[in-house]
Write a structure and sequence with these properties.
single chain; eight-stranded mixed β-sheet; seven-stranded mixed β-sheet
Length: about 850
């Protein structure tokens, strides 16, 4: 059973239909009007809704699947498909109650059919539609699938190709965003609010919430549920939810756990649309399960429980439903946080800087509303110009990635990295698994989605200040201008540590600076004006540097002297209309502050390292925004179905021969390999193989073959090959399973390419230096699948050794193609839990894998992009 949203924001339940649902299907049949009956649609074979009910009652076999949509307990739509003659085609059929025909029921049901059909290997949906039934034709056409329909005649033959592509995912995401924003309007723009559990005693959570609401300027209807008072803070009280004068659109619950569960149930029965539950102690208890059940049964949107609450500063509907000690300043920053403490700290820090929030949502235990919901809301909220996330867990990281990437294209998205433990118990160690830690996976998610990641709330405030008061830099070339040489040197060092480029000032700029500054001044980058220059001269020098075409951004580090304070002169220069400038004032009391209090000219930091760190993050974001999308250029696989079938039939660590076959089916280059089991004879293989060869032991517990004595190189002749085989049998005894024999590969650079699949994040592609020193050197880069061509390029350039590696003339294009082929393997075979190609031997004329380890494990076929709410 899945909770999902219709286009207008109503919550419905979508689930497969079973024999017990026959009566519901027949009840829908009896509710259809004559027009509904005429415009309902089924496939070309004779089919009626009562016939479908009979099929459901008989529990049709695997070639039949039906799904229903329930709204407020009533079945309002049915969709089903029937496989045609054991083929990869299926007829599709659907019918929707006329009362909800314009609310997206048909489209939602079709998405669920598509998702299920793909899991079973179906390739196409077929349909036959009356030409005048334009509604159904539009439903099919607007799904986002590859679509064809015949023309002419009274009927249209429709073909929909089920292959997943970006167009379909974008269409699903757009529908999801529209529906989610409509449902969250009940939370952020409520016409009426009820506070359940507000007490008369100052200092209690409920009293604080009501106080904040009353003083927030909210203009809608407010009532309080408290059986022990007639009025609190001038607001009328009633003894129960049922006794409220009107059904509130939004309710906030401030009660102990058992009473909170009952209040949520009563809200659902009364027809409340959204609930904020501040109460703690529900999760893991019967009270928590009651809340979850009420959310499912009544179609509620719920924030919490165990949260700080919600604030909206929208002038059209401002309210504060938190127990914050000070009001949130209105502004353009949207914040969602699982931690109430982080929300409090951020509200105070931003307020001290004169910055404000558009929305603050504390999700707490996030039974329902999550970070993904807020990403969709902010995409439609023009007041929110900067999004901030503190997430301790990801319910659907692949969907998060797509949502965050879309939002980051129009406004910055920031996230605080939180500690993450191991999300999966490794079945066995490998080089790839050692590199693919949870932190690496999370960071890859943020980087690919364009999210600006920080490690602390203080760093978060630093970056927010920089983004709020300055332009994004046009590139990485930074100039430092200082009236204190030491501060300038520290700033230059910090810039280089952060990967920024110290700009080379032009001769014209240096000549101009020489005329403006004392003879002892340094006119190369970093520019040292000397402490003796007055503020006006410092400002002129800063203008000269800003005019240099080779400078993208400037850090101006100043200290006051008896001659004057150059920092005060920056207001005359800033804000520049075309370049980024950050100020540094060593010793200032605040970590970051506006340079001119109350004006917000630019961010002024207390340390050059902080300014450089912010600038580097902004440069990376600007680079992400302007990154061209490189093409993939992969030849299609000859038989992808054979690859999938091969993987479905196996589990655990593959034998060396099976691992080689997996690569062959995936089109991944592997050196010619023979495998001889420990108990067999090597004579036949030795006679067929040329010389020289390498023998590699396949033994229990042997991961590092070379270090463990499991590799014998440059073995010449059949007799020596047999002798080497005996040596390995003697060395490893009963632990030896077998031996692989390969021709010696030509010399080249050894790299690692691998896949580590996480049950939450999906497959991660790892690239790095390989061979015997893989773990010692630990020079790796990682990206989450699916990889784009640009992602593959970033992997190739993401190592510390990338520049000398590719400057040595190795075949970069061949390695790039290998990365994309490994990515395709991870996408086609979700059972691939671990893949380790180490080493991959790279030469100027190509690359080839010399060793492979692969582990498969069954996975639940989960569709991360299917529209659904948290459950």
């Amino acid at each position: 059973m899945t909770r999902a949203l219709l286009a207008h924001g109503d919550v419905v339940l979508v689930r497969p239909l079973h024999p017990a649902d026959t009566a519901d299907v027949l009840a829908l049949h009896t509710r259809l009007t004559q027009r509904d009956t005429y415009f309902r649609f089924f496939g070309p074979r004779p089919n009626t809704l009562d016939k479908l009910a009979a099929e459901i009652a008989a529990e049709a076999g695997p070639g039949h699947y039906a799904v229903g949509c329930y709204r407020r307990g009533a079945l309002v739509g049915v969709a089903n498909y029937e496989v045609l003659n054991d083929s990869s085609d299926a007829e599709v059929a659907l019918v929707v109650d006329g009362a909800v025909r314009t609310q997206g029921v048909a489209t939602l049901l079709m998405e669920h059919l598509v998702s299920h059909a793909r899991k079973t290997g179906l390739k196409r949906f077929l349909a036959e539609v009356l030409a005048e039934n334009a509604n159904v034709i539009h439903v099919f056409k607007d799904l986002g699938l590859s679509f064809e329909a015949s023309v002419g005649g009274p009927e249209r033959d429709v073909v929909m190709v089920l292959e997943e592509d970006s167009a379909y995912l974008d269409a699903v995401l757009e529908r999801d965003s529209v529906a989610d924003a409509a449902s969250l309007a009940h939370l952020f723009k409520p016409a009426s609010i009820a506070v359940i559990g507000a007490g008369r005693r100052p200092g209690s959570v409920g009293h604080a919430v009501l106080t904040n609401l009353v003083t927030s300027g909210y203009r809608g209807s407010v009532e309080v549920v408290n059986p022990h008072a007639d009025a609190i803070l001038g607001v009328r009280c009633v003894p129960s939810v049922a006794a409220l004068n009107r059904t509130p659109e939004l309710a906030v619950v401030c009660l102990p756990a058992p009473a909170a569960a009952q209040a949520v149930e009563e809200c659902g029965k009364r027809g409340v649309r959204a609930v904020v539950v501040l109460s703690s102690g529900l999760t893991g208890t019967g009270a928590g399960e009651r809340v979850r059940a009420a959310v499912r049964e009544h179609g509620l949107r719920l924030v919490g429980p165990n949260c700080l609450g919600v604030v909206s500063t929208d002038p059209a509907c401002p309210y504060d439903l938190t127990f914050l000690g000070t009001p949130v300043r209105p502004g353009n920053i949207g914040v969602v946080t699982q931690s109430g403490g982080v929300g409090i700290a951020l509200a105070e820090s931003l307020g001290d800087l004169g910055l404000g929030m558009s929305t603050l949502v504390s999700t707490g235990d996030k039974y329902d509303v999550s970070g993904n919901d807020l990403l969709m809301w902010w995409a439609t909220d023009l007041r929110t110009e900067l999004a901030v996330l503190y997430l301790e867990s990801f319910g659907n990281p692949r969907k998060f990635s797509r949502l965050a990437r879309r939002l980051a294209r129009t406004r910055p998205v920031l996230a605080v990295r939180s500690g993450s433990g191991d999300t999966a118990q490794r079945a066995a160690a490998s080089h790839t698994a050692a590199a693919a830690t949870p932190a690496v996976t999370r960071d890859a998610l943020f980087e690919q989605a364009g999210v600006i990641a920080v490690d602390t709330v203080a760093e978060l405030v630093d970056v927010i200040a920089g983004l709020s008061w300055q332009l994004l830099p046009g590139g990485p070339r930074v100039a430092v201008v200082s009236n204190a040489g030491g501060a300038g040197v520290l700033a230059a060092d910090a810039c280089e540590r952060e990967g920024l480029v110290m700009a080379k000032l032009s001769q014209d700029t240096r000549d101009r600076l020489a005329k403006l500054l004392p003879a002892e001044a340094a006119v190369r980058n970093p520019v040292d004006t000397t402490a003796a220059v007055p503020p006006e001269a410092f400002a002129d020098a800063l203008r000269a540097v800003l005019d240099d075409d080779g400078v993208d951004a400037v850090i101006a580090a100043t200290v006051p002297t008896a001659v004057g304070d150059p920092g005060t002169s920056l207001a005359a220069v800033l804000p520049p209309e075309y370049k980024t400038v950050f100020a540094v004032r060593p010793g200032q009391r605040a970590r970051v502050a506006p340079l001119v209090p109350g004006r917000g000219v630019t961010a002024c930091y207390d340390d050059p390292a902080a300014a450089a760190a912010v600038l580097a993050r902004l440069v990376r974001y600007e680079r992400w925004l302007n990154r061209p999308e490189a093409e993939e250029h992969l030849e299609p696989l000859e038989d992808p179905d054979a690859l999938r079938a091969f993987a479905r039939d196996r589990e655990g660590w593959l034998s060396p021969s099976d691992a080689v076959e997996l690569l062959r089916l995936a089109g991944i280059p592997m050196v010619e390999t023979r495998y001889v089991e420990a108990g067999d004879s090597m004579d036949a293989a030795a006679a067929d193989l040329g010389s020289p060869v390498v023998l590699k032991a396949d033994a229990d517990g042997l991961l590092h073959k070379t270090a463990g004595g499991g590799v014998l190189l440059n073995v010449h002749g059949a007799d020596r090959i047999v002798e080497a085989f005996r040596l390995l049998r003697a060395r490893f005894g009963s632990a030896l399973r077998g031996v692989t024999v390969q021709p010696m590969a030509e010399p080249g650079r050894e790299l690692l390419v691998g896949v580590r699949s996480d049950p939450v994040f999906g497959p991660l592609v790892v690239f790095g230096l390989g061979g015997v020193d893989t773990d010692l050197i630990a020079d790796h880069a990682a990206r989450l699948a699916p990889l784009t061509g640009a992602d593959a390029d970033l992997l190739l350039d993401g190592l510390r050794a990338s520049k000398p590696l590719w400057a040595s003339g190795l075949d970069r294009a061949a390695v790039r193609e290998l990365l994309l082929k490994v990515n395709r393997l991870a996408e086609l075979v979700p059972e691939l839990a671990e893949l380790d190609l180490n080493p991959v031997r790279v030469r100027p004329d190509g690359c080839v894998a010399l060793d492979v380890r692969a582990r498969l494990q069954p996975v639940a076929a989960e569709d991360p992009f299917l529209r659904r709410l948290r459950d």
